[in-house]
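Following up on my earlier thread - several people asked me to post the actual chain instead of describing it. Fair enough. Here it is, all 197 residues.
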Amino acid sequence: MGPTRVTGTTLVVSAESTVDASTAELLWDLYCLSFGSLGEHAAARQLLSRPDFDLEVLDRRVTKYLARTEQGQIVGLCTLSNDLTTVPWISPCFYQAHYPRHFARHAVFYCGLAMVVPEARATSAFLQMVSAFARDIAAADGILAADMCRHNIDVVEVAKTVTSVLRRVWGSVSLVELDVQTYLAWEPQHAHRGRLT
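Reply from S.P.:
Thanks for posting it. Predicted structure:
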């Protein structure tokens, strides 16, 4: 018997600077459950290492937006930080060069994690978390930055969903592709027979 699907329930989103160790452990388990299947859809590793994950959820400089059911069950997490040194896989100087005025006033916000557990994906958890951090970014006259694999852009349509929510909260928004990392392979002529396309 699989997990119970979360439907027809009121969700509450809170913004928290800290979580305790047991909540961090629970979030790690939910994160692995939520992101585990992306390994076959993206060339880059989509699952953070445990130390990088802990940096996101235990660092006070990173705001944790948690979606919970009325019973207190955590079903979603988004992390957001305007201190880009808390995001070890990005280059803060890249964002400083592209958004110098925003960067100088700590108004470049990076969403390091965004997840909803599989059994709650039919709920409004993701929309509510994005709405919550969109209001916080708007209050700082900031910009949102994130990274995502092509599968999440084209198939899951995460970028389209975020753009829609930001448009509703901010009034207008432009989605800008800042950079692309392309994964390449050089195959001998006969290699195509062993590869699924």
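The domain at 11-194 is CATH 3.40.630.30 (Aminopeptidase). That should answer part of your original question.
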